Amino acid sequence: MKDTRWIGEHRHTLQRLAMVVVVVAVMGLDCDDEGPLENGLPVVGEIFGRVTTDGLPRAAVTIAIRQGADLVATRATGAQGTYEILDLPPGVYEVSISTITGFNCPGQQTATVVADGETEVNFACLTPGSVTGFVTVNGIGAPVLVTLRDGTTVIAVTTSSFAGFEFTGLDPGERIVEITPQTGWTCETTHPVTITSGGTATVDFPCIGQVIGGEVTVNGVGEQGVEVSVCLEPGGSCLSPRVVTDLDGLFDYTNATPGDYVVSIGTPPTGATCEAETIHVPASATVVVQIACTRP
Fold first, then answer.
1. What is the pLDDT of residue 23?
2. CA distance 139 to 146
3. 63 near 76, Cβ under 8 Å?
4. If residue 243 lies in a helix (H) or strand (E), which one and from where to where?
């Protein structure tokens, strides 16, 4: 009788508890806070991961989760560079991070979320490396096209100069440096190179060819800014592009082929008289010529 009386006295309380249980079951709520349920199973997943710079955890980096043009969620990485975004409906998401100055980071990554699943997306950022070097012919720096490749994919193209060439801001890895030599050169045209995080790799291309170099003087002093023409003799084509003397009156043609040439001045320096010079250029040789101009 005591148990029956207790049930009778607490009938309304028991009815209210039963209603709560029904509401929990209908709404898919879970007492362990595992998120929405369907037939007693979770219907959401999560994306988690870590951001590092040169292998060290990076805090305060903003993680953005998107579906198409819609921003779904953002989080900032913690002290250990980690992040976690919970309660994501199943689907395909794009994960990206904010810019970290001074580092090359992976771009946007795709993550597929499944019900009750955990999808890991990490971002390993590295200090960029560089590649420098010289292209020379007979020891003289020469202007040629230099290409940096990853396999068959062209990463960057530049033109070497008398001061060499340089590629910067590069991801670490194995790459190939390739030059387009001028006619008559003999040299290796490709070199493998290993780019390291924060490092500088050096690749040189020493070539052998025909070089015509020299100096233009006026009364024995080097003359700057004088255009020098070098043409095959007799009446042949001229080497191009035409070069102009530097601060010291010096010039170099690194694209000559064996043969006889006339070296002359396009427009003589003001008030000066200059005489053309005839030279012979043998194979794999450097020939130096001096154009001595006079001014009264």
1. 38
2. 18
3. yes
4. strand 243-244
CA dihedral (278, 283, 288, 289) in degrees, to 10, reads: 10
Which tokens sit at 124?
A: 């390993």
The structure tokens 């070098």 sit at 230
Please list, in sequence order, all residues whose beta carbon lies within 8 angstroms of the beta carbon of residue 224, skipping any fewer than 6 positions away: 245, 246, 247, 248, 249
Q: How many CB atoms lie within 10 A of CB 64?
A: 17
Beta strands in 98-160 (DSSP E): 109-113, 118-120, 123-125, 129-133, 135-137, 140-141, 145-150, 153-159
pLDDT in tens, 32-76: 444 555 555 668 999 999 999 999 999 999 999 999 999 999 999
Q: How far is it, in rounded angstroms, from Cα 31 to Cα 245?
A: 85
SS3 assignment, position 66: strand
Axis-axis angle for helices 11-27, 2-9 (nearest 10) = 60
Q: Tell me what the pLDDT averaged over the chain comes to.
A: 89
Residues of the chain with pLDDT under 50: 1-2, 6-7, 10, 12-34
